[in-house]
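Structure (tokenized):
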């Protein structure tokens, strides 16, 4: 049975139209200030991250040539896992968001970049950049809300299939890149007649091509380079590195979208949404993860998920810089600034997935207005801009 609404009043309802418009102007000003100051220092940042990834990937492959020896296997697998995380989170995700298009670099841009992931760039950019970032947390429109296979909000009608979600949640975490790739196919759009069979076949062909390239690279070519004595060990090292990357990406993404503090919205609430209302919805629908500067880089700076959802096209290295300004807006307008440590956020997400596998369920209590005295001390950005 669908839940009755409203369950918890959204802070949007407590703002006047004038306040919402002023919030919109203030966020626009933050965006313009940052984009007017982008320059060579920012470009050096992303180029240095790409260079670091390539060096780590090369180092890991060299170490894994001796994968028949356990210390080499452990070290090579760890370095390769870190390289894959860096490529997936801080590079692939952000470049394909268009965060670095302002550089006019022929390679580092959203039109040409591809990544070491099962999703094709075209399908992912439509599903994620357009659908998710446009209709964030709008029930029935944001297909990333539970990835269409999990009940993570009490407003979602319960179905017996959700009884299995604690189990396929683990599978999704382990094979996250493949889960996202199939999700990006958006089979629901095909059922609704919003996507043609020809488009689906094209996307499936693209997925198949990427699957073959990954199988060839990780499970045939590099294991063969290790010789007969190291083939199996290098194959398992590559498989393990992919698991590490998948679990990490799953944890960061889920902790940024599905903790207790996040709000969801009905379609009626957003019917006549203004620019200011859009910003507030993005702010309320995301949650940050607190951590060190190194943690934020490894998370693709999605520890600043609030800032990312407000400005998805802004270079990720600038999120730490604008976070105090976002907090100031939250304080002045009585809005929450959702943030917590990784363990806390992950725990609340898993609790929700377990509880909502069963019928019923109520939204967890939401945080009050942001107060600076309650905020934890964060480390300085890794690269000051």
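Design, position by position:
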């Amino acid at each position: 049975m669908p839940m009755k609404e409203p369950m918890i009043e959204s802070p949007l309802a407590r703002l006047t139209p004038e306040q919402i418009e002023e919030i919109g102007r203030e966020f626009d000003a933050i965006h313009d200030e940052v984009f007017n100051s982008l320059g060579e220092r920012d470009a050096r940042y992303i180029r240095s991250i790409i260079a670091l990834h390539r060096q780590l990937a090369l180092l890991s492959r060299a170490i894994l040539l001796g994968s028949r020896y356990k210390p080499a296997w452990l070290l090579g697998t760890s370095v390769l896992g870190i390289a894959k995380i860096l490529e997936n989170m801080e590079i692939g995700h952000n470049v394909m968001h268009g965060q670095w298009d302002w550089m006019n670099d022929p390679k580092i841009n959203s039109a040409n970049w591809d990544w070491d992931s099962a999703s094709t760039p075209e399908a992912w950019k439509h599903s994620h950049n357009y659908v998710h970032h446009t209709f964030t947390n709008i029930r029935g429109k944001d297909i990333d809300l539970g990835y269409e296979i999990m009940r993570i909000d009490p407003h979602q009608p319960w179905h017996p299939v959700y009884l299995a979600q604690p189990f396929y949640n683990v599978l999704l975490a382990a094979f996250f890149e493949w889960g996202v790739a199939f999700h990006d196919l958006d089979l629901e759009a095909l059922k609704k007649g919003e996507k043609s069979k020809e488009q689906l076949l094209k996307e499936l062909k693209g997925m198949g091509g990427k699957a073959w390239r990954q199988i060839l690279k990780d499970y045939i070519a590099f294991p063969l380079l290790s010789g007969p004595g190291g083939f199996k060990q290098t194959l398992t090292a590559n498989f393990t590195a992919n698991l590490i990357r998948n679990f990490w990406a799953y944890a960061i993404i889920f902790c940024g979208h599905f903790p207790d503090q996040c709000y969801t919205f009905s379609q009626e609430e957003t019917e006549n949404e203004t620019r200011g209302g859009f910003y507030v919805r993005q702010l309320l629908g995301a949650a940050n993860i607190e951590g060190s500067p190194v943690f934020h880089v490894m998370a693709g700076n999605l520890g600043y998920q609030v800032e990312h959802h407000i400005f998805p096209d802004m270079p990720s290295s600038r999120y730490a810089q604008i976070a105090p300004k976002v907090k100031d807006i939250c304080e002045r307008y009585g809005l929450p600034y959702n943030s917590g440590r990784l363990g806390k956020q992950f725990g609340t997400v898993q609790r929700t997935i377990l509880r909502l596998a069963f019928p019923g369920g109520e939204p967890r209590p939401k945080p009050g207005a942001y107060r600076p005295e309650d905020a934890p001390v964060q480390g300085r950005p890794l690269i000051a801009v």
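Reviewer-requested clarification: The two ends are 51 Å apart (CA to CA). Strands lie at 288-290, 339-341.
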